[in-house]
Amino acid sequence: MNGRRAVPKRGSRDTDGTSISRRAALAATAGLTVSTSGCIQRLRNLVTRDNIDQLSLTITTLPTESDRACIRIANELERTFTAAGIDVSLDVRSGIDFHRSVLYDHDFDVCISRHPGGTDPDYLYQALYSRYADESGWQNPFGYTNLAVDDLLEKQRRAEGDERQQAVTSALEAIAVEQPFVPICIPEEHRAVRTERFAGWSEDHLATRRGYLGLEPADDVETLRATHTDARPTENLNPLAVDYRDRGTITELLYDSLATDDPTGDVRPWLAKPWDWDGATIEIQLRNGCEFHDGTPVTASDVEFTYEFLKDMSLGDGDINSPAPRFRGQVESVETVDARSHNRVEITVGTNRAVGERALLVPILPEHIWRDRTADVRGPGAVSIAQGTTRAVVTNNMEPVGSGPFRLVDRTEGEQLTFERFDSHFTLDHGDELPSPTVDEFSVEIAPSSKTAVQAVENDDADVTLSALETNVIDAVSRSDGGRLVESPSWTFYFLGFNARNAPFSNPRFRRALAQLVDKEWLVEEVFHGNARPVATPVIDEWVPESLEWNGSDPETPFLGTDGEVNVNAVQLAFEDAGFRYDDQDRLRVRQ
Q1: Which residues of 35-50 are buried (b: 16+ CB within 10 A; e: fewer)?
Q2: Cα dihedral value 425, 427, 431, 435, nearest 10
Q3: pLDDT (tens digit, 9 = 90+) per residue, 111-136?
Q4: Does the predicted TM-score (pTM) go above 0.70?
Q5: Which of 254, 262, 283 lies closest to 363, judged by CA?
Q6: Domains and their CATH numbers in the chain
């Protein structure tokens, strides 16, 4: 079987069997963080007597129409931070501007958003590895640098079985001590569907391509009608654009990958036939007769090009490598890709099987389209990313050429997308072996909110809400004969992120003190109406160590208060213990 089964949870022990002291880890990693981020002098300045001002910070987040939960969390944290003596302002940005500000420009103090997460803990390598601190995208947007954590993240990429579990546990505990970001909660993931037009909604996850393939339409039903609360796909279908992409469901329907995964983390063959694994090399055989939407054959050369291109979008023509702002962590595990014949490719990886096979999940790009997008782009209006701007980053790709089960045939910006079944898709030739498109057309209408999206389903104007519903509308969805809610496993999470490039957010003791102002349990009830679960560490249950299990409060940074209200005396003691001080008006002071 191609994939891995998560090993059972274990306690917090290193590979030599000795217990880990998280407080000792803080002492070690705090010093290492300061040394590697060059902030020694700035941290000393925090306790000097000259030029001391009230500490000010800006919370960057999304508006209600982009993500209602984010602005609600921001409002609550503004209240608790203010009670702690901090001068707080809100910077509310549209989805595109937010992602450009945080993921491209790194222009923020703290931010609140929903992280894409992952079913395998290796996503933390991309999220926190020091080498990525100055790159753009979801690779280390926090600018976090800690060589000890780097070592643990690298170790879990190489280790297998119990040894990997122990390395993951050590990494999670060190991250919980340092708090480069504060995981708040994992929301429940529900979608409204119509059951009289289609059966099979619960067969696969509705955030992935497989959820929309293999459905059983009723007689004479030829169109699958979806409603979506995010209009950005009508403006941009570039699979590499982190400012326009979230879960990537539409990308998966347009572009095939060599493999596909499921909510348990198992990786299964898709564009590739079942492969052999010898511990370092994956022998890939492409399925027969695969074509791109323009009729060009999909070949091993396209696969080789894709991995080279995602590692360096300039293909060696730039002054430095220009890795794609998406899929960076996945392709990092690939050492070589060699096209051996028209449909056979050899991929060598420098990681364990679980990590190496996840490199097979990236979209395969047609070389004849994307090779011309390697040129450097400069000038006004060009999106600037840390690793260089090429045509590949700035193109909106609104005539996408993939090889996926659906192809785009029409769109109206801000309103709708229309796809039709790609009748040359390989799944149509494999019977019940693989799920395939069962309708002629897939239409996506844009709705302004989860409420209106649900109404479209209830009124029989849509068959499914492509976006997961906001948690405040879940309990109000009617359960009629023609419709119901489908719950899917969730691995995305809401977080409070710190820009560790700048003081005082570079100081882990300051971050820990701020983390204790977040009442996760209370936010789940007030903001998410109980349709979420608070977490101390952002991995799926199989990987949560006993030391970080939620037991009514965060075991590492418990909230300093009750029912959303901070205990001001306890908060002041926490900040003073972290090396900060207050003036006679209870304002937290810092040299700006």
Answers
A1: ebbebeebbebbeeee
A2: -130
A3: 999 999 999 999 999 999 999 999 88
A4: yes
A5: 254
A6: 22-187+492-591 (3.10.105), 191-227+412-488 (no CATH), 230-404 (3.90.76.10)
